Amino acid sequence: MKQLSDVELVLLQIIAESKQTSGYEINKLIEQRGYREWAKIGTTSIYAGLQKLKEKRLIQSDSPTDKFGKGPLPVKFAITEKGIQLLRIEIIDCLSSTRERDSRFDLGIAALPLIHKNEAMEALKKRDEFLRETLLHIRGKYEAQGGEKLPLHVWALFLHPMSLIETELQFISQLISKLEGGATL
To answer: Does domain 6-97 have CATH number 1.40.20.10?
Structure first.
Protein backbone atom coordinates (compact mmCIF):
# COMPACT_ATOMS: atom_id res chain seq x y z
CA MET A 1 0.00 0.00 0.00
CA LYS A 2 1.52 3.29 -1.16
CA GLN A 3 1.92 5.70 1.77
CA LEU A 4 4.33 8.16 0.14
CA SER A 5 4.06 10.14 -3.07
CA ASP A 6 6.86 9.62 -5.60
CA VAL A 7 8.39 12.96 -4.58
CA GLU A 8 8.26 12.06 -0.89
CA LEU A 9 9.83 8.67 -1.61
CA VAL A 10 12.72 10.23 -3.55
CA LEU A 11 13.30 12.86 -0.87
CA LEU A 12 13.22 10.35 1.97
CA GLN A 13 15.64 8.08 0.11
CA ILE A 14 18.10 10.92 -0.54
CA ILE A 15 17.93 12.12 3.06
CA ALA A 16 18.49 8.57 4.36
CA GLU A 17 21.43 8.09 2.01
CA SER A 18 22.99 11.47 2.86
CA LYS A 19 22.40 11.17 6.63
CA GLN A 20 21.87 14.95 6.86
CA THR A 21 21.34 17.30 3.92
CA SER A 22 19.82 20.62 2.89
CA GLY A 23 17.10 21.34 0.34
CA TYR A 24 19.72 22.88 -1.94
CA GLU A 25 21.90 19.76 -1.75
CA ILE A 26 18.87 17.55 -2.44
CA ASN A 27 17.95 19.63 -5.49
CA LYS A 28 21.52 19.35 -6.80
CA LEU A 29 21.57 15.56 -6.35
CA ILE A 30 18.17 15.18 -8.05
CA GLU A 31 19.56 17.06 -11.04
CA GLN A 32 22.81 15.05 -11.13
CA ARG A 33 21.06 11.69 -10.99
CA GLY A 34 18.43 12.62 -13.55
CA TYR A 35 15.42 12.07 -11.28
CA ARG A 36 13.62 14.84 -13.15
CA GLU A 37 13.73 12.73 -16.32
CA TRP A 38 11.13 10.34 -14.97
CA ALA A 39 9.83 11.44 -11.59
CA LYS A 40 8.56 14.97 -12.30
CA ILE A 41 10.31 16.58 -9.35
CA GLY A 42 10.56 20.35 -9.54
CA THR A 43 12.25 22.67 -7.06
CA THR A 44 8.90 23.73 -5.61
CA SER A 45 7.81 20.11 -5.13
CA ILE A 46 11.05 19.42 -3.25
CA TYR A 47 10.30 22.01 -0.59
CA ALA A 48 6.60 21.10 -0.42
CA GLY A 49 7.60 17.43 -0.08
CA LEU A 50 10.07 18.22 2.69
CA GLN A 51 7.32 20.03 4.56
CA LYS A 52 4.96 17.05 4.20
CA LEU A 53 7.65 14.67 5.42
CA LYS A 54 8.21 16.89 8.47
CA GLU A 55 4.46 16.96 9.18
CA LYS A 56 4.37 13.15 8.96
CA ARG A 57 7.36 13.08 11.36
CA LEU A 58 9.43 11.09 8.88
CA ILE A 59 12.21 13.70 8.87
CA GLN A 60 13.41 16.35 11.27
CA SER A 61 15.11 19.62 10.49
CA ASP A 62 18.00 21.36 12.17
CA SER A 63 19.38 24.85 11.56
CA PRO A 64 23.15 25.06 12.10
CA THR A 65 24.29 27.70 14.56
CA ASP A 66 27.72 28.50 13.14
CA LYS A 67 27.35 30.76 10.12
CA PHE A 68 29.88 31.22 7.35
CA GLY A 69 29.42 33.81 4.62
CA LYS A 70 26.32 35.72 3.65
CA GLY A 71 22.73 34.59 3.33
CA PRO A 72 20.44 32.53 5.52
CA LEU A 73 21.65 29.43 7.29
CA PRO A 74 20.76 26.26 5.37
CA VAL A 75 18.26 24.01 7.10
CA LYS A 76 19.54 20.45 7.31
CA PHE A 77 17.18 17.48 7.21
CA ALA A 78 17.69 14.03 8.78
CA ILE A 79 15.48 10.95 8.64
CA THR A 80 13.70 9.78 11.80
CA GLU A 81 13.38 6.18 12.95
CA LYS A 82 9.73 6.25 11.78
CA GLY A 83 10.98 7.52 8.41
CA ILE A 84 13.51 4.69 8.11
CA GLN A 85 10.85 2.08 8.85
CA LEU A 86 8.38 3.49 6.31
CA LEU A 87 11.11 3.94 3.69
CA ARG A 88 12.07 0.27 3.97
CA ILE A 89 8.42 -0.79 3.52
CA GLU A 90 8.00 1.52 0.51
CA ILE A 91 11.24 0.35 -1.15
CA ILE A 92 10.22 -3.30 -0.85
CA ASP A 93 6.78 -2.46 -2.26
CA CYS A 94 8.32 -0.52 -5.18
CA LEU A 95 10.70 -3.31 -6.08
CA SER A 96 8.11 -6.07 -5.83
CA SER A 97 4.88 -4.62 -7.19
CA THR A 98 5.26 -1.59 -9.46
CA ARG A 99 5.80 -1.58 -13.19
CA GLU A 100 7.09 0.89 -15.72
CA ARG A 101 4.42 1.79 -18.25
CA ASP A 102 3.24 4.83 -20.16
CA SER A 103 -0.54 4.37 -20.14
CA ARG A 104 -1.10 7.33 -22.51
CA PHE A 105 1.00 5.60 -25.16
CA ASP A 106 -0.99 2.40 -24.64
CA LEU A 107 -4.22 4.36 -25.04
CA GLY A 108 -2.87 5.80 -28.29
CA ILE A 109 -2.08 2.30 -29.57
CA ALA A 110 -5.58 1.15 -28.69
CA ALA A 111 -6.99 4.05 -30.72
CA LEU A 112 -4.82 3.51 -33.83
CA PRO A 113 -7.83 2.58 -36.02
CA LEU A 114 -9.25 6.06 -35.47
CA ILE A 115 -6.46 7.86 -37.37
CA HIS A 116 -4.96 7.49 -40.83
CA LYS A 117 -1.98 5.16 -41.27
CA ASN A 118 0.26 8.07 -42.35
CA GLU A 119 -0.67 10.03 -39.22
CA ALA A 120 0.15 7.00 -37.08
CA MET A 121 3.54 6.50 -38.73
CA GLU A 122 4.39 10.21 -38.43
CA ALA A 123 3.45 10.23 -34.73
CA LEU A 124 5.48 7.07 -34.10
CA LYS A 125 8.50 8.55 -35.89
CA LYS A 126 8.24 11.64 -33.66
CA ARG A 127 8.12 9.40 -30.58
CA ASP A 128 11.15 7.52 -31.91
CA GLU A 129 13.05 10.80 -32.31
CA PHE A 130 12.01 11.99 -28.84
CA LEU A 131 13.10 8.70 -27.24
CA ARG A 132 16.47 8.74 -29.03
CA GLU A 133 17.15 12.29 -27.78
CA THR A 134 16.10 11.30 -24.26
CA LEU A 135 18.36 8.23 -24.39
CA LEU A 136 21.33 10.35 -25.47
CA HIS A 137 20.63 12.82 -22.65
CA ILE A 138 20.42 10.11 -19.98
CA ARG A 139 23.47 8.28 -21.37
CA GLY A 140 25.43 11.57 -21.30
CA LYS A 141 24.61 12.10 -17.61
CA TYR A 142 25.47 8.47 -16.88
CA GLU A 143 28.87 8.71 -18.57
CA ALA A 144 29.64 12.14 -17.05
CA GLN A 145 29.16 10.74 -13.54
CA GLY A 146 31.35 7.68 -14.00
CA GLY A 147 29.27 5.13 -15.94
CA GLU A 148 30.14 1.59 -14.90
CA LYS A 149 32.07 2.91 -11.87
CA LEU A 150 28.94 4.37 -10.23
CA PRO A 151 27.59 2.83 -7.02
CA LEU A 152 25.19 -0.02 -7.84
CA HIS A 153 22.00 1.88 -6.98
CA VAL A 154 23.00 4.91 -9.10
CA TRP A 155 24.17 2.65 -11.95
CA ALA A 156 20.80 0.86 -11.88
CA LEU A 157 18.94 4.17 -11.72
CA PHE A 158 20.48 5.10 -15.08
CA LEU A 159 20.52 1.66 -16.74
CA HIS A 160 16.88 0.87 -16.06
CA PRO A 161 15.38 3.77 -18.05
CA MET A 162 18.00 3.35 -20.79
CA SER A 163 17.07 -0.33 -21.14
CA LEU A 164 13.35 0.50 -21.24
CA ILE A 165 13.87 3.18 -23.88
CA GLU A 166 15.98 0.83 -26.02
CA THR A 167 13.25 -1.83 -25.83
CA GLU A 168 10.54 0.71 -26.71
CA LEU A 169 12.61 1.91 -29.68
CA GLN A 170 12.70 -1.70 -30.94
CA PHE A 171 8.93 -1.98 -30.49
CA ILE A 172 8.26 1.29 -32.32
CA SER A 173 10.51 0.19 -35.18
CA GLN A 174 8.55 -3.08 -35.49
CA LEU A 175 5.22 -1.24 -35.38
CA ILE A 176 6.31 1.23 -38.07
CA SER A 177 7.54 -1.68 -40.23
CA LYS A 178 4.19 -3.42 -39.92
CA LEU A 179 2.37 -0.23 -40.89
CA GLU A 180 4.73 0.34 -43.85
CA GLY A 181 4.31 -3.32 -44.84
CA GLY A 182 0.60 -2.87 -45.34
CA ALA A 183 -0.82 -3.93 -41.98
CA THR A 184 -4.36 -2.65 -41.63
CA LEU A 185 -5.54 -0.53 -38.73
So the answer is: no
